[in-house]
Design goal:
Shape: elongated
Helix content: 40-55%
Strand content: 5-15%
Number of helices: 11
Number of strands: 13
Strand order of the largest sheet: 11-12-13
Distance between the termini: 48 Å
């Protein structure tokens, strides 16, 4: 392959790798950006007065005096809403009272029907729920009309008219009251709630806008067309036309900021506070701490085992590596690698290294008597060898550099060329030879 082609392919592969990395970063950004954006809303948001009331009541955090003044200001803005509700309840109670008076007039008889109606009238006086009263009045009207004992029909008609007027708005009123409780919290005349979610309104302004939409519009489904039904939103005020609650939804929409008093809030304690009421309020402190503990515990087990496995694998690879594949510098150290004195020729100028490697003493010249030393089958030097390698039979001999110094040479593992090992030295020749021979015997199992 031409060099230009290789350079071109190298640039193409590099550009492809960079493009793949950028593509992965972009994909992660598209996936993770919405997650981080929505998650940041848990820390940065517009908190309402209900949020500050939660912090004071649940965590005893904040300024009590400033909070009391703020609660008084928001209560003044909410009071017209409660006045409208009270006026409506009084009007409803008046209609129910008319029906109860009709039942009491019907009970002024000395027969069994009179005594039954008298007991029902007393029971109506003890009830507090408007729905319970209307349900009992409906049963009285139906039972009286089907009874064998004659009853004044005019009084029964009066009861039915009152029940019709009340029933048309009772369900709509209860839905409106529930929407107000979700938005602003419990009403002044409500009993004390046990669950924290029922003691507070919306703590965040964005969620308050969602609940305001539920207050203004009533959701229904239209199944007139084929296929799946469609959601239809109708103004809730239409259910109270001609009553005291007709203007209530519009008043709440215009004055919601005064009722909740939203402020920019940085709730960094969300990361440390405990959760309250199954994560309706509070933070994720215990959950985050548990995740950290789990991660550290896994690391305490995994890191030591990984280090031990890596060390054992490295040592096992060194022990099972063939001696010929280990560089000679690692086998005999960093000392010069002199050859062995040929015991047959007794020529101190010729020395033989490990596996048939030959070296001549520095300054000995290129003498014809300098011959390589070969090893026999028992691992001992054999005189008069022909200079073949013990492993591969490659020809080795003394090589001379241009400066005249004789150096050790050996062919690479795959026969790729000669490699200089070091200059021969006449000192400690026997010790190095004995070291080489003993290492060779140990590795070859002889």
């Amino acid at each position: 392959m031409q060099i230009a082609t290789r350079k071109l392919l190298d640039r193409v592969f590099s550009a492809t790798g960079i493009f793949a990395i950028l593509l992965m970063i972009g994909a992660l950004g598209v996936i993770l950006a919405p997650i981080f954006y929505r998650g940041a809303g848990a820390l940065l948001f517009r908190g309402t007065v209900e949020h500050r009331k939660q912090m004071m009541e649940l965590f005893n955090r904040g300024d009590p005096d400033a909070l009391a003044r703020e609660v008084m200001a928001t209560a003044a803005a909410r009071q017209p809403v409660y006045d409208m509700l009270n006026d409506f309840n009084l009007a409803q109670a008046g209609r129910v009272e008319e029906a109860i008076l009709a039942v009491e007039r019907l009970s002024r008889r000395d027969d069994l029907m009179g005594r039954r109606l008298q007991a029902a009238a007393q029971r109506l006086r003890t009830m507090t729920s408007l729905r319970e009263k209307t349900d009992l009045l409906q049963r009285i009207s139906s039972g009286s009309r089907t009874s064998a004992t004659p009853v004044d029909p005019a009084e029964l008609d009066l009861i039915d008219i009152a029940l019709t007027e009340v029933r048309e708005t009772t369900q709509a009123y209860e839905e409106l009251a529930d929407a107000l409780r979700e938005l602003l919290g419990p009403m002044p005349n409500d009993q004390e709630r046990l669950m924290p979610r029922q003691r507070f309104g919306q703590a965040r302004w964005d969620r308050a806008q969602v609940k305001l939409h539920h207050l203004l519009y009533k959701q229904s489904w239209d199944h007139s067309q084929a296929g799946m039904g469609q959601v239809v939103y109708t103004p809730r005020r239409n259910d109270f036309e001609g009553t005291q609650l007709y203007d209530l939804p519009d008043y709440v929409a215009r004055n919601l900021d005064r009722m909740l008093n939203p402020r920019p809030t940085f709730y960094w304690r969300f990361l440390t506070d405990k959760s309250v009421d199954i994560h309706f309020f509070g933070g994720i402190g215990p959950e985050l701490l548990g995740t950290i503990y789990l991660t550290l515990g896994a690391m305490l087990f995994a890191v030591p085992l990984g280090i031990i496995a890596g060390v054992r694998s490295f040592r096992s690879g060194l022990l099972h590596q063939h001696p010929a594949r280990i560089p000679i510098e690692k086998r005999v150290g960093r000392l010069p690698h002199p050859g062995a004195v040929d015991p047959a020729n007794r020529d101190p100028r010729c020395r033989r290294g490990h596996h048939g490697r030959t070296a001549c003493l520095q300054g000995s010249g290129h003498e014809p008597g300098c011959r390589p030393l070969a090893y026999g089958s028992d691992g001992n030097p054999a005189g008069g060898a022909a200079g073949h390698s013990h492993r591969r039979g490659h020809q080795h001999g003394p090589r001379r550099r241009r400066d005249g110094a004789n150096h050790f040479h050996r062919r690479g593992q795959c026969g790729t060329g000669l490699e200089t090992l070091g200059t021969a030295d006449q000192s400690d020749t026997g010790a190095v030879l004995e070291h080489i021979q003993s290492g060779y015997r140990a590795r070859s199992g002889r």
